[in-house]
Recover the amino acids of this structure.
């Protein structure tokens, strides 16, 4: 709190017990499950549990609506010092002493990070958000001309020029009429051929060139990769690949391309539009 002084000590845990501290990144689904349990934990006999299996594991959270069942969330473990060499975090605990004084304890330096994996409902939420964003973009930038519309077949009369009248600019070229339907078909065909070219490229290059355009959350990145074709093996390898080529924001979970990776970006990448190439 503001305008308050605290006493700070390190390592108040002195009873011989070993305490491990982690930086935990939850998904929206996992956070809602924790909040639901905390609100009604007195009515549930089960308790939350966490299990580590090497660099992976899972968290079980009881469900107040089903007291005998628990939701399970998988996670993977990563080293903060390796992923973010710029600095480190300390775990601080606030407590009230027997005399009523408020103190802060440093329980230790956070070396490892637990990242909860997205579940199906997380992907569904991201899919809905992307679909809504695409629909808003389309409504602002495109006008669809429907066959059989109100102006179809309407006759327009042109008045013939008077005899002897000449064009003010004789050398001006007449504009060639454009067949809108044909132009749309050609544009769609070229987009399909570009997508098929991207699907044949190495998975690492595809991820690298998407992140070069803008930051992505993992769920958004998976949905974007699926448009050009995504195998189960590629999906399983994504977490490890992101640790190699991207920096993940602890604030909002977005992945940005590491500065040293931009040297591998190709301007003539088949999945890039002319606007993307300018970026």
């Amino acid at each position: 709190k503001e305008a308050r002084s605290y006493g700070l000590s390190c390592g108040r845990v002195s009873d011989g017990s070993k305490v491990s501290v982690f930086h935990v990144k939850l998904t929206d689904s996992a956070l809602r499950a924790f909040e639901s349990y905390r609100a009604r934990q007195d009515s549930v006999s089960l308790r939350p549990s966490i299990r580590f299996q090497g660099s992976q594991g899972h968290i079980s959270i009881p469900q107040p609506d089903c007291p005998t069942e628990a939701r399970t969330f998988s996670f993977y473990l990563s080293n903060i010092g390796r992923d973010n060499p710029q600095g480190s975090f300390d775990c601080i605990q606030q407590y009230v002493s027997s005399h009523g004084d408020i103190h802060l304890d440093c329980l230790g330096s956070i070396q490892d990070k637990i990242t909860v994996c997205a579940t199906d409902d997380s992907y569904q939420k991201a899919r809905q958000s992307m679909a809504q964003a695409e629909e808003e973009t389309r409504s602002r930038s495109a006008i669809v001309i429907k066959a059989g519309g109100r102006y179809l077949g309407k006759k327009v009369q042109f008045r013939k020029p008077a005899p002897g009248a000449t064009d003010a600019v004789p050398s001006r070229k007449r504009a060639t009429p454009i067949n809108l339907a044909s132009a749309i078909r050609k544009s769609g065909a070229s987009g399909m051929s570009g997508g098929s070219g991207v699907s044949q490229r190495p998975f690492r290059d595809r991820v690298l060139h998407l992140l070069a355009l803008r930051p992505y959350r993992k769920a958004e990145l998976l949905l974007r990769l699926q448009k050009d074709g995504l195998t189960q093996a590629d999906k399983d390898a994504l977490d490890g690949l992101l640790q190699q080529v991207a920096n993940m924001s602890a604030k909002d979970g977005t992945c940005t391309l590491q500065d040293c990776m931009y040297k591998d970006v190709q301007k003539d990448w088949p999945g890039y539009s002319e606007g993307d190439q300018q970026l």
In short: The chain has eight helices and eleven strands.
